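Now read these lines:
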Amino acid sequence: MQPTLPEELRLLQRSVRQFVEEKLQPLEREIEAKDEISRPVIDAMAAMGLFGLGFSEDVGGQGFGKLGYCVAVEQLARANASLWNVIGGSAGLCGTAIDTGGPDALRRRYLPDLLSARKIGAYALSEPGAGSDAGSLKTAARRDGEAYVLDGAKTFITNAPIADLFVVFANADREKGSKGITAFVVERATAGLEVGPNDAKMGLHGSTTAQLFFHEMHVPVEQRLGPEGGGFQVALRTLDYGRMGLAAHAVGAAQRLHEASVAHAKARVQFAKPIAAQQAIQWMLADAAVEIHAARLMVYDAASRADRGERVTDRAAMAKLFATEALGRVADAAVQIHGGMGYMRELWIERAYRDARIYRIYEGTSEIQRLVIAGGLLADS
């Protein structure tokens, strides 16, 4: 059950799926075991243009718009989730922040390298004391002539151990609260930047995360994204697009789990008949199909609106909430339908179940998405 797409996006969909199934799926066990994605794999994804999807060609992207990006991301979800996480953290968040915040000099300097994966980016917003409440971040940016001096720390930063540059959010005027937040592009070699060790996580093995520490780190004024105090709006706009991508990935992950569950239910015989003949199994499969179809439509609707220039904060939050919650239920049903084998590491279902849990947390928890949606409903018109 696929919505009708333009021919160019159907071609994109097929080519990405073929690449994923032929080149990426065979690497799943190795990535999981080593907790590492090798540089040749990143280069192969870059050669497919996967880092530049959703960005215009004039900044080094592949075009296709946000809908094309979501269509491709959905297919990327048919392999180890950490593979897209590298792209999402680098181009999807770091690249989008630079593209959204500007100025043109920073777009020209960094986007071609990010969108070709010659450089890997990271998006440094979350802090030990400011996760969902991004407006209360404590990292400080003090103006000192033609530079800012940053002090503070960031946590759970995707790609941090392998990143070449970071978009860092800091507060240049704490008395202004969120209106003092300012964004900067920081290169890895910048003095005063310390990257912590790779975090040990439940899932997403292969996707690296770490803490960042800033010790009197001097960042030139020309590395600022947009005006001083404009960083919070850059963060919000970036997260709108990031949530669409995450929702699309959840749809693709749920689709793969559902297909595996249908196939297993047809093949697994108990009490002299396939378990698919049992109404209990049929209802689980039917409920999953309904949720995946609805989630896909929500993602495509939000992306299409973004391509038309609409602000999609509410739609992106709805898609992210629904799709990621649905993935959690589909993953749980997949383990249940596969029975004991679904719990064994021999089968990829077990890894997908662990990977699915983070979707309801990062880029805004499900509870935060509900607050965003409610805020839009209750805002003064």
